[in-house]
Amino acid sequence: MIRACALSDLDDKKPLAVEIGDVAVVLVREGDEVHALRDECSHASLSLSEGEVTHKGIECWLHGSCFDLRTGQPSSPPASEPVDVYAVRIDGDDVYVDPTTTLN
What we know:
Blueprint: E1 2-6, E2 16-20, E3 23-30, E4 33-38, E5 52-54, E6 57-59, E7 66-67, E8 74-76, E9 85-91, E10 94-102
Antiparallel strand pairs: 1-10, 2-3, 3-4, 4-9, 5-6, 6-7, 7-8, 9-10
């Protein structure tokens, strides 16, 4: 696990882009829970962190594909492939992500 940011750096349902080693990751806070996904839309290779968080998940800003925050599965077209989801651990005010292990 690698420290990604402080929990206090994350606003609820506002994506935050971070680089963990050579992996681009988008973090999304939902209350006390933090999700980490690969920061790249599987449809158009664009940064998901530039999109919005909706009730469906994180939405790619260009074509509107949404990805479930827990599974990475697309919930709306045009994307048909999931994005990687990474393990997250919160320790005090520190958010740790393991970009070497995917949960999906």
